[in-house]
């Protein structure tokens, strides 16, 4: 049995130690926000927060998560009540196919929690590990900057 | 009468002493000049080659900063230095430097205004360059975009903040003339020696340093530690248990994946990207010279690891963590392994090394995207694996490769690396 703390709730899961967190989130817990992109830590579609830091959940074994808190995009708001970053992404239409967006929002969340007023260069460097194959990066940057400009607490 | 003699002697000694100290620690200013006219394309191309071979930009360009404008912190046991602006800006760079001023800095470590440069600037190696190469490097540096930028103040500990003391260090470590080719060796070997010992200043990292930061001449190329990474010994690579050949070393030196060995990471990655800018003959010459460096009889040699991987390692707790965190790229069945002859992890230098340092550093920091080969990239695991997981994975990999010589200092090494981050 493995105990995972996900979005503030404790889950007792009968899964092997070596199962990547992404699989447990999607298959066992039913949280489908984080996506399987490359499975190699190269695209960022699976990004979630572990102890407030963005990590690739496809490369994080569940056996390494004892005592740590996991947060996914679902913890940031809902379709009815989106969080500040989610709302900004909708307002800026910062998605085309949308597959990368949960990872993008979660990575941006980690940045703004630690540094509410990052400059452009910091945002770009922080977001670099996450790829958008539709090429929506400019709108993604605009969405993040609109949250910063409005001074919304993420 | 006797007393007067003694006083006279003391005064005379004092005068001589002050004179000696003055002679040791004072260097004249060299007159300022206006930035020179741009040199011709051929000179600039030759100069660029020297500047790449010398890795000038590796230290003189800070991350995100302008080319050659300086500002990179260098953390030494004696405090933190910031690299200087070597663009031709007259006020904040070297725009007022004449060629003789530049050559004096390269050969003697003296700035144009006469102050002593710290030996983190490898003038002990650059002094081995030919006059023509120094002139070409000067012409190239004078052709880059001038940038107005002044690096932050150095924070050196007392008494090292007193620059003139470097004059005594120079007395010990600054010697030798420009390298002359050895007539009994091939032109390629001589070219390699010139690049390795001169511009490339390889031994600055790949040799142990003594207490005052000089390279131990008796242990040249025996390996050192730089920025928390092991700079491995360059001796005996051709006859090691898992030997390097020239093609592998050239691939490694030019930022590609070396079959059966791995790829440059950490502080060596930018160096390899610099070498990748040189004509491939230069990388081949460097490889030829390095593969010719033999172990000396007094060098420590570790007993060999068993030839075959240890199958029982799979029962260690780190094996499950490896499956979840590493196997999607590093298992023998992973499609990523088919790219660019990526080696099995158990064959890499990091896992075969006597110290776990480079394996730990690579897992923590990953390897950034580089321009030389996409297959180089590795994500960082500093935020997803904690110290016990890192230790378990390292123990598993080491046990698979070398169960007879386990790493005994894993926890300590991980802790020391984490606290440096």
Task: Round the Cα radius of gyration of chain A to an integer and report it.
Answer: 15 Å
Largest interface, with counts of residues having CB < 8 Å to the other chain, equals: A-B, 25 and 20 residues
Helices of chain A, by number, come to 5
What distance separates the N and C termini of chain A?
34 Å
In short:
The complex is a heterodimer of chains A (154) and B (421). Chain A is of the alpha+beta class. Chain A is built from five helices and five strands; from the N terminus they run ββαβββαααα.
Could you please describe the fold and organization of this structure?
The complex is a heterodimer of chains A (154) and B (421). Chain A is α+β, with helices and mostly antiparallel strands and 154 residues long. Chain A folds into two domains: 2-72, Beta-grasp domain (Ubiquitin-like (UB roll), Roll); 76-150, Orthogonal Bundle (DNA polymerase, domain 1). Chain A has five helices and five strands. Chain A has helices spanning 21-29, 84-91, 101-114, 120-127, 137-150; strands at 2-6, 9-13, 47-50, 53-56, 69-71. Chain A has a five-stranded mixed β-sheet with strand order 2-1-5-3-4, sandwiched between helices. Chain B starts with a helix and ends with a helix. Chain B contains 17 helices and five strands. Chain B folds into three domains: 27-173, no CATH class; 187-291, Orthogonal Bundle (Cytochrome Bc1 Complex, Chain D, domain 2); 311-420, Cytochrome c-like domain (Cytochrome Bc1 Complex, Chain D, domain 2). In chain B, α2 (41-53) crosses α6 (131-141) and α4 (99-108) packs across α6. With 421 residues, chain B is mainly alpha-helical. Chain A binds chain B through residues 16-20, 39-42, 50-51, 53-56, 58-64, 121, 125, 129, and chain B through 64, 320-326, 328-329, 336, 377-379, 381, 383-386, 389.
